[in-house]
């Protein structure tokens, strides 16, 4: 055979060639050969010991979302493997590359119903774009290399199951890896004829808008330029927050429920939607797209074009290239009444949010907490946002710019995402300030991994919005006219628990304590858990507004404004009339 190398170490060399920096997981008997290889290569790859494999999978997924590079996690046979599913499905549904290494009993014990042995290959079939069990030691580095290439190609999850004995064997050093030679695929150029057709539709429209999805990431200047040049208000998908500044006048925010008021109203009022790099399922499932609305759709994936709605002009193109061409081949529109109305509507909404953020009443309000987060933000922060009311409130109250990063569990919407995402954020961007924003329900699911933050000495600011409710679900029960059941939570002193784990725990009940807590968090040299006890108020339901006399009674409007402290909030119809929009 000539010169040899341990197969598990060869696998690590493949990961190194693909520029993998961290691997997340928990050791187990069926994955010990991988653990030994990680020990040998510890100077080149950081093994991050999480306290639950689910958190490791979230961290790997968040790494991929934040960087575009593959995230790697592992789990041992049986329970270690099954614990990965939440994070892997999050990666699948948000279309990011993740590699999951799965332990398996040794080949001699397979098919004997051995301890923790499971037929793992079919388990991972649905979540993965590539799913293989390694059959020989010689093929181990090849299968892992192939898995990573497939994960990148398909923007999905690749799963490699490794019988433990194979990673211990010696193989020839003539294996190879393709990481160093990987080339990003060329993105399609826009068709000039179709660009012309798109511009003609925009010219004819009275109320054209942009709906921008994750495909506009990295195209901040082009998106703002297109919006200004053709006077198109911009509605964003939630996961795209921060792509353009929140203070850009035409940024209407997001739509449907995890949304802003202007985002929904702008979408409802549109007669033409320029859909750019977005896959918005609520457009169909919640009937948010009117049948008479025309669509221009720009996407690099032909399978996405026409998936959610009829398309009048299909542009298979890189978003940045298409937006540049739309600007270059058109005359600037200096004035559009609908644009002006939307800008005025957004100013009214921002004034409402500021009113809520400025409150100093006690019990504390959620807006007051976000005011402090915005106060200490550095301008290049990472926000790892969990799922629930905290997602909606983060989209509304965080004042972000394109230098900051925002990550959440979007389509899978799994609670518990925040801690793992924050760990990945701080390890990936050690010089940045990193926040984990979570409700008390989500935090309690995964709070053991504050221990990981402590062990890795990660100065993450964990902000817990404690209202002793599954608020998001409670609101759904109200909307469905159910009696509240199963949505109340047992409270806890999360600050005391955090202190017991070696973090800095701070309990907050008053406005004075709130300000002091964030001042302390900024200078802490390790993880901080700020447990803020807030009032259990429902956020304003942007998907079910009761503000317009044309659709709501005077009694409904008065009650809606009273409940949500929205006396000065106006429906978009006020501004459509003011600017005489057709």
Automatic annotation (TrEMBL):
Coiled coil: none
Keywords, comma-separated and alphabetical: Pyruvate, Thiamine pyrophosphate
Example GO molecular function: thiamine pyrophosphate binding
Enzyme class: oxidoreductase
Location of the Thiamine pyrophosphate enzyme TPP-binding domain: 386-532
Database matches in Pfam families: TPP_enzyme_C, TPP_enzyme_M, TPP_enzyme_N
Assigned EC number: 1.2.3.3
Similarity remark: Belongs to the TPP enzyme family.
The protein's name: Pyruvate oxidase
